[in-house]
Design brief:
One of its GO terms (molecular function) is DNA-binding transcription factor activity. This protein has 193 residues and is mainly α. Helices cover 68% and strands 0% of the residues. The N and C termini lie far apart (55 Å).
Length: 193
């Protein structure tokens, strides 16, 4: 590994061969997941599709599960800022409902499972949390600029994101817009004196 390059999970220097390899491998994984059952995918299959050697994948990602977690994290990164409705409550409801819808879909649930199953321990899970908290931070900054009081970021994660993920992974209890509004309203009650 040349100086300045890092592994796929921890980030790559912008541009260059590393970025091209990461893009090719990520694209190969996404294509294969669209074509095959998850259990049929292997490092040699991904390598062949990406035009790299299996050793390149093992060196950068360690194993298939860490690669799947890296691809999942990349897919979880939003392309845009959260929708702006004009109120903290409205912005939170819109974002949490979108999060619920995306993560409870079959691809979303698979991404959560891939992140949690990574052998790298909790780093991908922390990165996943950081992505969500960055979105909440945008919502909170907008609200603060409008003069609205904003809740604690960790409390928002605990009261709005964690219950959604828990229900997705561990229950068959339904979630809908009413459930999301209940979560958001519980969070906003923490702002009352």
């Amino acid at each position: 590994m040349r100086m300045g390059e890092e592994t796929g999970r921890k980030g790559l220097r912008p541009g260059g061969r590393s970025a091209r390899v990461q893009a090719a491998v990520h694209a190969a994984v996404r294509d294969l997941l669209a074509e095959r059952e998850r259990g049929e995918i292997s490092v040699p299959l991904v390598a062949a599709r990406a035009g790299v050697t299996p050793s390149t994948i093992y060196r950068r990602w360690g194993d298939l599960q860490d690669l799947l977690a890296d691809v999942a994290l990349e897919q979880m990164r939003p392309d845009t800022d959260p929708a702006e409705t004009g109120t903290l409550r409205g912005d939170l409801i819109a974002w949490v409902d979108q999060y619920r819808e995306e993560m409870s879909s079959a691809p979303g649930t698979a991404m959560i499972r891939d992140v949690l199953a990574s052998l790298e321990g909790s780093d991908p899970a922390r990165q996943c949390c950081a992505i969500s908290q960055a979105q909440l931070s945008v919502i909170f900054a907008r609200a603060a600029a409008r003069g609205e009081a904003v809740p604690d970021l960790d409390l928002a994660t605990d009261l709005c994101i964690a219950p959604v993920v828990y229900r997705i992974l561990f229950t068959d209890r339904p979630m809908d817009g009413d459930y999301v509004r209940t979560l958001v309203d519980r969070l906003l009650m923490s702002l009352r004196p």
